[in-house]
Task: inverse folding
């Protein structure tokens, strides 16, 4: 089951497998339902006959929060250690019981498929980070996933780990899409994640990884996120990246970043 969100003349509207759901359907309603009841709730909705062909919107509502996880792949740990003046911090969190979790974006700040992402003007070393993004309900159960791009300023975070919010949280730094695959976490164990970056029509970077290489499971990350935080409308949780471009690479205006997570494909041009 696949949910997508579209900009129609009557306002944002959700669709299921390419057909519009009722106008009053919201993701908040769905994420108030227990995971075992999600399929029944969706099947109880009346689908329209009209194909959902209006422009895509980010598959998140303004009230939702997007959180993120760090250092969940060995490749990410190694890259952070290389860039950082305090490399030990990343080794410690990689082997620690408690994961690194941080706030990424409110729903209204998220950009979607074929929208523009940005890099900070005060940063000289910026990269996209392709990630599996799990969708959790109000009970912190995983009910689906989407693809995400956690655009990051490596030089700012590397200067001091306490600068991470500035390296990670700014306008145009969070992209999700194109839609949501409704499924449980068992379907996410061995998803292929790939990323390609084009510049002036030429591929300048490409790589792939498998979610089986994650040190922490999506369920563990979601459990920690919900330990002392309530999400009555559900939330989105980025699960970390296992793909890091070479040290000499930095994003430039006009680059096009394509990210695949399972069967989902998210593409964004880098704006100035």
Result:
């Amino acid at each position: 089951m696949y949910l997508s969100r579209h900009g129609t003349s009557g306002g944002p509207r959700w669709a299921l497998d390419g057909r519009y759901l009722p106008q009053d359907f919201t993701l908040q309603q769905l994420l108030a339902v227990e995971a075992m009841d999600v399929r029944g709730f969706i099947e109880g909705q009346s689908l329209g006959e009209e194909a959902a062909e209006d422009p895509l919107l980010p598959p998140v509502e303004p009230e939702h929060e997007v959180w993120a996880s760090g250092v969940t792949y060995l490749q990410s740990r190694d890259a952070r250690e290389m860039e950082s003046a305090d490399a030990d911090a990343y080794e410690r969190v990689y082997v620690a019981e408690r994961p690194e979790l941080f706030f990424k974006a409110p729903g209204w700040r998220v950009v979607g498929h074929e929208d523009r992402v940005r890099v900070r003007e005060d940063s000289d070393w910026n990269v996209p980070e392709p990630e599996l993004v799990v969708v959790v309900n109000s009970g912190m159960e995983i009910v689906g996933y989407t693809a995400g791009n956690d655009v990051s300023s490596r030089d700012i975070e590397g200067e001091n780990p306490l600068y991470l919010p500035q390296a990670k949280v700014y306008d145009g730094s969070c992209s999700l899409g194109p839609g949501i695959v409704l499924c449980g976490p068992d379907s996410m164990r061995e998803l292929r994640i790939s990323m390609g970056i084009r510049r002036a029509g030429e591929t300048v970077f490409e790589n792939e990884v498998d979610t089986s290489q994650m040190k922490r499971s999506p369920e563990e990350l979601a459990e920690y996120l919900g330990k002392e935080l309530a999400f009555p409308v559900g939330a989105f949780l980025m699960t970390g990246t296992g793909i890091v471009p070479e040290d000499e690479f930095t994003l430039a205006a006009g680059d096009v970043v394509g990210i695949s997570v399972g069967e989902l494909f998210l593409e964004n041009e880098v704006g100035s």
